[in-house]
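Sharing in case it's useful to others searching the archive later.

Someone asked me privately for the predicted structure of DUF427 domain-containing protein, so I'm posting the question and my answer publicly. Question first, with the sequence:
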Amino acid sequence: MVDRYITITKADGTWVVRAAGAIIAESANALELAEGDYPHVIYFPREDIAMEFLDRTDRASHCPHKGDACYFSIVAKSGTLANVAWSYESPKAEVERIRDHVAFYTDRVTVEQL
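And my answer, the predicted structure tokens:
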């Protein structure tokens, strides 16, 4: 069922994440995840993220389709954006492609295609 409910494709072009006046991520290898009726989500490979700006938090959640998510805050001079990003470090087999990727809440940071 998951393969019909969730699709993961390579996101076209180059994508960036901007937060607190800085570019946090830039990738030509991002993935686009479509899940049911939810807005599509861009997942960035960790190697294309300035991970030194992200601090893992104690927050966690569970998705029956993807598995357990951990969360990150962005720490900047202007302040901390708490729990603004998430990752599935051990995703379910059906969505294995998002392992080692991070997604960001688009209402808290800017995620855009260049």
